[in-house]
What we know:
By secondary structure, the protein is α+β, with helices and mostly antiparallel strands. It is 15% helix and 25% strand. The protein has one domain (63-242). It is built from 3 helices and 14 strands. The strands form 4 sheets. A 5-stranded mixed β-sheet has the order 1-10-7-13-14, with no helix packed on it. A 5-stranded antiparallel β-sheet has the order 2-11-6-4-3, with no helix packed on it. The radius of gyration is 18 Å and the shape is globular. The relative contact order is 0.20.
Amino acid sequence: MDDLERWLQAQMQAATQDPPRNLLSGVWQRRRTHLRRVGASGAAALAAVAIAVPSVLASTANGPRAGSAGGPSTPDAAPGTELLTCGAYGDRGISGGELGAHWKAASIEAGPVWIVYARDGSWRSSQRLPDGRLRNVAGVVLAVSNGSTAEITTAQPGRFRFLTSAKASGIYTLREGVAGITLVSCQSYRVPRGIPEGYAAGLTLFYLPLGYVTDLTGCLPLQIRTPPSWRVGWVTEVPLHGACRG
């Protein structure tokens, strides 16, 4: 039994609840299975595993769950974007997982969204081939506050695309993919104290296996919108290769 299993059991006992039979073994069976599928060498040492920590945390929290007034009653994608919701599991996106112990210091927060590991070079320019096509930057991660819906786009859609369809070659053009994604997080819950930062309590992680393509080489401007107005609420710049070079 490792630290997370011990922590989960302690939280359940503190809440005077007995762990359901096979709950923890089921959590870690899903973790090990997914690690085999995506490989242990994920981007920026991320273990992007589709584990059930958010639902387990919710079951251990005392008191009623917080409302999710920040998100729409029915998850809908903003016009022209790809929709990923809580529980997503596929080539386009995987929700859930865990991060490094101090991931926030290496990430950028913009409203309800975290651009994970944006400060350490995980977000970078695509490699340009002689024929002008681009290699994808795979395995990036976004996090959204639970109970929220957020659209992430760029002010330069002609130079940045989130990818939604895999190619064996890993080579794409800027005419493929979508200009933005809409992320619908899991239901919010009261977060117990003492949870290690790496478990990203209160957030839904979205691992993007295909990632994106871009021909930008300095800063990637991102815009964050939320319903119902879908107006730009936050703007941030993601340094490609760890620094904005202009």
